[in-house]
Amino acid sequence: MSHPIIAWKLREAARCVHSGGLIAYPTEAVFGLGCDPLNGSAMERLLALKQRPVDKGVILIAADFNQLRPFIEPLAEPLMKQILASWPGPNTWLLPAADHLPYWLTGIHPTLAVRVTAHPLAAALCRACDSPLVSTSANRSGQQPARSALQVRLRLGNRVERILNGPLGNSRAPSTIRDGASGRVIRG
Questions:
Q1: Residues 145, 31: contact at Cβ < 8 Å?
Q2: What is the pLDDT of residues 110-148, one digit of tens each?
Q3: Helix (H, G, I), strand (E, B), or coil: what is residue 15?
Q4: pTM confidence score
Q5: Domain that holds residue 19
Q6: Structural domain count of the chain
Q7: Which CATH number belongs to the domain containing residue 27 in this structure?
Q8: E strands along the chain, which residues?
Q9: Nearest 5°: CA angle at 47, between 116 and 63?
Q10: Does a cis peptide bond (omega within 30 degrees of 0) precede residue 78?
Q11: What is the pLDDT of residue 5?
């Protein structure tokens, strides 16, 4: 990620996130649609664009577990050891949400969906933003997820301020979602 053009694009994308913009970026399987998870107006725009109800909650991706710590309450050590061993990778875990989190992140759930991404560009974007990012598929609810920057632009138009173009990862399906406390698969 040290290429000067990539570094410039990451800085531009981070500026967009910090100013409340919506961005699209490649992940392990599909293009993600994201924003600053603590910016209420950005989240409101993201959910309206996706036509997604706020009560569902969203996934946060991060470059490493330290970026997620302020957002969750860790489970017992044996459970956390298993979760941490699955990262980075296409494994999303539902962990107890920190008390102070805004409703738009968790919805009606006591947990928050989190993942340490294995996608190099998505991880670099989280590092450039110095925070986790909301990561929901770049499409309207019920439509097929975008698998290219062009599909993002065609489906979501100019309401996405910045598209970070790059190849998808090798996963053919969205990340597996598991309950951290039980290990039960929620989405396979």
A1: yes
A2: 999 999 999 999 999 999 999 999 999 999 988 999 999
A3: helix
A4: 0.94
A5: 4-187
A6: 1
A7: 3.90.870.10
A8: 23-26, 31-34, 59-62, 91-96, 111-116, 133-134, 136-137, 162-163, 176-179, 185-187
A9: 15
A10: no
A11: 67
